[in-house]
Design brief:
Elements: H1 8-21, H2 25-33, H3 41-55, E1 62-71, E2 77-83
Antiparallel strand pairs: 1-2
Length: 90
């Protein structure tokens, strides 16, 4: 992302990406925002939608960055997981 999620540009940038992956995302956010004015609500809403979209890829072929992740002191893998391809059904 080029812009902070706290800015209008960053908000729009994130919504555009989400809407390309899952059409209708912009409308979901628009309806969910309603008349809410709480500071941070918009960021929380986009974060939650991004997590929901990411979770929808659970049945897809997934890859990690790095390919062989390190493990932290608690035994947790330090990795980013992403779908290898955005194909129909994923």
């Amino acid at each position: 992302m080029k812009h902070s999620k706290k800015t209008e540009e960053g908000f729009r940038e994130r919504l555009e990406v989400l809407d390309k992956i899952r059409p209708g995302s912009i409308e979901i956010v628009r309806k969910s925002m309603g008349k809410r004015k709480r500071v941070g609500f918009r960021d929380d809403l986009v974060d939650a939608l991004a997590l929901a979209v990411a979770a929808s890829f659970a049945a897809c072929s997934l890859a990690t960055l790095p390919a062989v992740p390190e493990v932290d002191s608690k035994g947790l893998r330090m990795e980013m997981v992403y779908p290898q391809g955005l194909t129909a059904g994923c």
